[in-house]
Amino acid sequence: MTKTANQTWIILGATSSMARAFARKQAAEGAAVLLAGRDMDDLKLLAEDCRLRGARLAEALAFDARRPEGFDALVARMEAEDGLLNAAVFVGSMPPQAEIDADPSLIDGTITDSFTGPARFLQLLAPRMEARGGGTVVGVGSVAGDRGRLGNYVYGAAKAGFHTYLSGLRNRLTRAGGHVVTVKPGFVDTSMTWGLPGMFLVAAPEKVADDIARAVRKRRNVIYTPFFWRFIMLIIIHVPEMIFKKMKI
Amino acid sequence: MIWKDTTYTGWGRALAAKGGLARPERQAALASLLADGLLPAIGNRRSYGDAALNTDGRAIDMTRLDRFLSFDTESGVLEVEAGAMIGDIAQRFAPLGWLPAVMPGTGFATVGGCIAQDVHGKNHHHMGSFCQHVISIRIRTHKGVQEAGPEKNADLFRATAGGLGQTGVILYAKLQLIPCKGDVMVVTERRIAGWEDFLAHLDRSEATYTVGWIDATATGASLGRGILEEGETGAGLVPKRIRYRKVPFEAPHFALSAPIVRAFNQLYYRRVPASGRTVVKPISDFFFPLDKIHDWNRLYGKRGFHQFQCVVPIASAPALREMMEKIATSGLASPLAVLKRMGPGRAGHLSFPMEGYTLAVDFPNRAEARELIGRLEGMTVSAGGRLYFAKDALAGPESMAAMYPELSQWRKQVTKADPEGRLATDMVRRLKLRDEA
Hints:
The complex is a heterodimer. Chain A is α/β, with parallel strands linked by helices. Chain A has helices spanning about 15-30, 40-50, 70-80, 95-100, 105-130, 155-175, 205-215, 230-240, 240-245, and strands at about 10, 30-35, 55-60, 85-90, 135-140, 180-185, 220-225. Chain A has one domain: Rossmann fold (3-Layer(aba) Sandwich), CATH 3.40.50.720. Chain A is about 45% helix and about 15% strand. Chain A has a 7-stranded parallel sheet, with helices on both faces. In chain A, α1 packs across α7. Chain B has 3 domains: about 5-60; about 70-180 and about 405-430, 2-Layer Sandwich (Uridine Diphospho-n-acetylenolpyruvylglucosamine Reductase, domain 3), CATH 3.30.465.10; about 185-400, FAD-linked oxidases, C-terminal domain (Vanillyl-alcohol Oxidase, Chain A, domain 3), CATH 3.40.462.10. Helix content of chain B is about 25%, strand content about 25%. Chain B has helices spanning about 25-35, 85-95, 110-115, 125, 155-160, 195-205, 260-270, 285, 315-330, 365-380, 400-405, 405-415, 425-430; strands spanning about 5-10, 15-20, 40, 60, 70, 75-80, 100, 135-140, 145-150, 170-180, 185-190, 210-215, 225-235, 245, 275-280, 295, 305-315, 335-340, 355-365, 385. In chain B, the strands form 4 sheets. An 8-stranded antiparallel sheet of chain B has the order 15-11-13-12-18-19-17-20. Chains A and B meet through α2 of A and β1, α1 and β5 of B.
């Protein structure tokens, strides 16, 4: 495998705390990090931070999952770098289910942010990765995508779609020497979960970033992070539907 | 959600606050939180008492605003967001030959917290306090974002250094780092037989970093015995990797009972050979010895603990010895006790340091210990010394003006920076620091 220092990572949704922790890890290894998101002021601070932590190059780039017209420019920026091209997708949005119930049009945005937006970007990037004979895509999904639940089933549906997309993309990129890691985090201590009731065993974003980096190194296909969520979800997936439909979890 | 309603504590876990905490991850999020007025900012809550608590109010957790913003490889000037941790800075910059000029006893302390307590380190006798190496800060006061430093807005800076967060929300800080040889420490450890000997060694020490561990259970001829550690930075020697450990549960209260502490201290003292020894340690091991065990404060059980720390002038050394005797004969002390020589360096009106000796001892949170700490507080005042706000959880307001003679100057600046008193914390209310005398 090529050394991290020669690699280029684009990080979509780089202002999130999980993405920040992951970007810092790649920076410490000397990779080039392209930090894409909406809050450009914040991304510029993060770019400076990554440079000071050892990134060969760190740049803030504008990315909005709902504006695919900007995607070509991002891919072109990546292509200007030598070496393998990698992408880590941390975007997604989770409006409270009650708000969606009140305004079903929020479904479109949720699915664009969490699934179709990043999928369209990756679809543009895939041929470039194939041309270079490798590279890794990290797609951050969610345990919420493993089974639809009362509390967030629109978000869950979007992530389930994304999981399936990643599985197909893995099938495709493997043929060209590339790889796709599907990451299913449980509860992570981010601004999305801050203050939500019912959180337990909440993982630090740095812990999740460590798990992702290890999965990239070992070319794992699907990981749960922290690992025990695999067992929690195994149980949840296997509850018979006639019981599950009456449960409130 | 923006606000989390929660119960949170200081590091000693003896005091707690119930209130709303927000934890912005971006400057824009912080700005919108402050749009309706100032709120107290807190860091990693490594102050032992209530300096970072705001009961029935709100506070802003700054720990996610922790980025490095610029570094000049020529001058060693580093700019960071206020939530950046000292240990994080040391870990990144020591291999490049730079260290924060002053580092407190835990790497988890944030830069904002280090400024608000004007912390000191094992090199205080040479380098002075933390804020003496702060080139400038950007702070959000009642008037908006202001820049302050030893020259520009010096009044605001003097009130902010050690000012317990009462002048505003520190957003960014520019720090002057100091050159170091590398990322390991060469440490000489030697046994010290008793109190007078300890003071003499501390006075004589020429090392860059000096600290004394003291056996706070030893009495009689052994009173004040301990281990003197002297350190210099070094390079090229690869130390063992540190493994972090967690305390998985709260210890039962007898874990730190007198016989166990006495036995532990005996072993700890004898660990260093009578002839002394020189060891090589990772930088973090020397500066942040307890950070290896995350949540070590849980060792004291549910009731938590207190740390008493005072500084007294050199001339009051006999009074400090009396305090040591009281502590040693009480049988209440924990293994954690530290004696250090301090220089005169301080940067703010409420900065802790003064030229003299500082003693810090941990006690479990029990009635007898609280009573003892109360007596030690009185002895500190009579000795012309003062208590450290980063540690205190028990003192009353009466002796504050005596310990901190610049209190009224500080108040004047604080009133200007936060006229509505929105930044007051539990500690400020307990010690009536902002009430006009």
